[in-house]
Every structure is written in C-alpha cells, then in structure tokens.
Design a protein that fits this description.
It contains twelve helices and ten strands. With 281 residues, it is of the alpha/beta class. GO terms for molecular function: oxidoreductase activity.
Amino acid sequence: MSASRQFGPTTLNDEVVDAFSDRVKGRVFLVTGPAHNGLGDATLRALARGHPSTLLLAGRTPASYAPVVDAIKSIDSSIIVRVYVIDLNSFASVRAGATKILHKNDRLDVVINSAGVMRSDLNDEARVVNVSSGAYVLGSGDYSDVNFKTRDFDAFVAYSQSKLANVLFSQALAKRGITSYALHPGIIRGTSLQRDMPPEAIEGLFAGAKARGFVFKELNQGASTALVAALDPDIKRSTGSGGVLEDCKIVETQGEGARKEGAAEELWKIGEKLVGQEFAV
C-alpha cells in the first residue's frame, strides 16, 4: 500500500517504522541534529524500534543528545550507537567528522539531515533526506549574497532561503543519481526549534498558522514524513527522486525559486565554491 493511502498528517513516527520495519532492521542510519526534544531525537527513537544495526548521531553538543543515546539503548541495547561531534557552522569540523564517519563505518544506508548537510558515498538503495520547511516557497532563489554582506540581514529571508536550498540540494543530488527528498515536517509543538525567537514572535507564528487552518503536530508525529521519505520504496518507484514531501506523501513542488530551470545546478556550484571543493558525483 502506498504511503499516500496509508499515512497522513496525524501519522505517528512509530507507525511509519512499524510499516517499514524490514527497511530498518540491520541497516545503518546517520541523523544530524540529534538534540533532545528535537525532530532528530524523535527520528532516532522511532528508528530504534525497527532494530537497525547502527545509529550514527552527528551534533555539536554531546550533552544535548546524551539522553537520546540512553533512550536508544533502552529500546534496543544491541544497536551500535556512535556519536560524532560536528559543528555544522565549520567546514573544517564537517570535513573532519565526515572522514571519521567514513573511516569507522563500511556503509551508510540512509542520511537524514535534520540540522545540516553532509556528503558521503552512497549506493543505489541509499537515500539522503533533507528536512526543509514550507517556508521554502518564499525563498527567492537569489544566492548571490548568501552571507548578507551587501544588504541588511533579515532572519526570515535567510530562513526561507536556507529551506529552499534544502529542496534544490535534493534536486541536484537526484540529477546525480542519488535518491534524495526534501520535506516539510509540519508545524511541530514541543521542539527547541524556536529557542532563538522572542516569545511574541512565536505566539504570532502559531496564531497565524492556526488562522490559516494548518494542522499542528506533536513531536511523536513530527518525524513521520522524514521517515516515509527515508523508508517507503513506493515513493521512488512512483515518482523518482528529488521531490518534496508533506504529510507523508509527495506533493507538487511550489514556488518560483524551486521550479526555476537550472536553479539546483546554480546552487550546487555556489556550494562547491563556498566549501572550496568540487564533488565528482
């Protein structure tokens, strides 16, 4: 049964893993952004139910995801859990972390980017899942000044552009033969995502979303779309790669920035220039 018929906006994370347990058992998953009470945390706890061989956690502050490691071990003590301290604000840290991951692990089956982007060699069954946001549709696609050096900084513009970059990056990977999807997880209550926003801004955000009829999700539902993107074989068979998911199903890619011809390749080249490396993928 396809994900679009089986799952929806209220699907629980555990329901997705239970449905695709054969695609979790014995496999190796890398999840970035594993901080406690975040989507990475929820993703890892759900995956642990499916008895993977190895769960790799990549984050900046070990203390923030120590409870997640304990939770994984309490679910299945046989799972190999490896923790990598990687600061996604530092290219040097990302490079060093990637080298350690590839040296220690003979394969990666699925990469779920809840906090950033990491590149590694993949096989035909592997997937890269980029957690984006519905705000990607507001991104202009103009990456000529990604660091706001020649214009005033606007936090929401920066956020929208970064979420659009997630979508375009998945498109670029798809063109290179790597199965990749971007997704809007929904509006999730109970995470630390809004930790840097003033309370009045958070209240305004949720009030506006409620007025527009958006469905609010709890943390135990928030990772379900990412898990479908990572596990459901029907998605690739029916739609190929490079699409956007919302509420556990592929949806039409919206916004001029995401549909502009050549935008994904343009961003890919900008990314290579910023990191100072070309990727032969």
